[in-house]
Amino acid sequence: MADFRKKREWELPASTATRESAYWGRRDFIKVAGLATIGVAGLAYSQLGATSTPMMEEIARLPKLDAPGNEKYRVHGDMTKESVAARYNNFYEFSRYKDDVWEHARDFQPYPWQLEVGGLVNRPRTYDVDELVRRMPLEERIYRFRCVEAWSMVVPWIGFPLSALLKEVEPTSQAKYVKFTTFFDPEVAPRQQEGNWYSSEPWPYTEGLTIAEAANELTMLSVGIYGHVLPKQHGAPIRLVVPWKYGFKNIKSIVKIELAAKRPETFWNTLAPNEYGFVSNVNPKVPHPRWSQANERVICTVQRQPTLLYNGYAAQVAHLYAKT
Ligand code: MTE
User: Fold this and answer.
1) Could you identify the atom of ligand 1 that is nearest to the CA of residue 253?
2) pLDDT of residue 51
3) How many CB atoms lie within 10 A of CB 151?
4) CA nearest 279: which of 258, 310, 315, 306?
5) 31: which residues sit within 8 A by CB, 6+ positions away?
6) CA 32 – ligand 1 centroid, Å
7) Does the C-beta of 205 come closer than 6 Å to ligand 1?
8) Fewer beta carbons within 10 angstroms: which end of the chain, N or C?
9) What confidence tens digit (pLDDT) does each residue in 172-207 have?
10) Domain coordinates in residue numbering, the chain
11) Residue 147: CB within 6 Å of ligand 1?
């Protein structure tokens, strides 16, 4: 249980929830004023959206993934540019900032990769992710993505429904929850190193869903984005995508999936249970204790828009939460 008397390094300041709009407001000001010099923060953020950068050169070398688009899962409106989404990441194993995750993740080796699936199942199995990528019916789905920090984006994930994998391992009737665990490797993930983290940080990163949420049609295991395999900063080689929940539920670089009878403990919920609930469905009417969730900023723009209940996916998921 986190001690709230002391301010923690991981604690998101309320200002973070307004920070990005401030950056973009500032960029507009710089443009309008025609200033020739910009400050350090301005310089870093001017790289967001730039298409020819060392980061985009690295991304251009990633293997392509050919997956047909599933027309059922489309979003009206603009898709976020890859050069923006790939440089605005939360991956605390590597950095507590967003724009340098891609650089800090350089030594991380996500290929080859094994994914263990076990717990309350009849057929526990360890998968080679390469084999899954070759065998599973991959498709592209364009989903909205909403971070608990009140920013949003729209991205084209490539992957397959989690339900397809669960079917193979046959959960038993006692299985009520699904727990996901990220790798633990302090050699490549600096924030997992002893002395470099607060003893209250419960590494490795874990997340969980109810079995009904895991079986929902929207829930995906993603292995690619923007037509190629996942870059390291997006959680290569395999991550969870649950578009009606806040972004932190979308655990990256998964090594283990376990079916369980009891609700699993999860990273953010253990750190700050009053701020990051286990369920964490996107809901404009339930404010974060330190900021409103009624609106969101579209990343890399000054556009604000109303937050949608279940992030716009009520038709697919509202029945999961209907009171009987
Ligand atoms: N998974 C792991 N292992 N570690 C993390 O720090 N951050 C979460 C989630 N998954 C995180 C993680 C948070 S807070 C968000 S908003 C999303 O990943 C960000 O995903 P993206 O960087 O691909 O946009």
Assistant:
1) 3
2) 73
3) 22
4) 310
5) none
6) 34
7) yes
8) C
9) 999 999 999 999 999 999 888 876 666 678 999 999
10) 14-321
11) yes
Nearest CA to ligand 1 atom 12: 251
Cα–Cα distance for residue pair 265/242, rounded to 1 Å: 18
Measuring CA to CA, which residue among 149, 168, 121 is closest to residue 248?
149
Predicted pLDDT at 87 = 96
Tokens of 17: 């929830």
Give the distance (Å) from ligand 1 centre to CA of residue 253.
10
CA distance 34 to 32: 5
Lookup result for tokens 């599973």: 136
Q: What is the distance in A from the centroid of ligand 1 to the CA of 249?
A: 8
Exposure string over 26-51, b if 16+ CB within 10 A, otherwise e: ebeebeeeeeeeeeeeeebbeebbee
Rounded Cα distance, 1 and 202, in Å: 10
Among the residue ranges 4-13, 45-54, 97-106, 159-168, the one predicted with the least confidence is: 4-13
**Structural tokens at position 266:** 């999860």
Q: Whose C-alpha lies nearest to ligand 1, atom 8?
A: 248
Distance 248 CA to ligand 1 centre (A): 5
pLDDT in tens, 83-122: 999 999 999 999 999 999 999 999 999 999 999 999 999 9
Record the pTM.
0.88
Q: Please identify, by atom number, the ligand 1 atom nearest to the C-alpha of residue 234.
A: 23
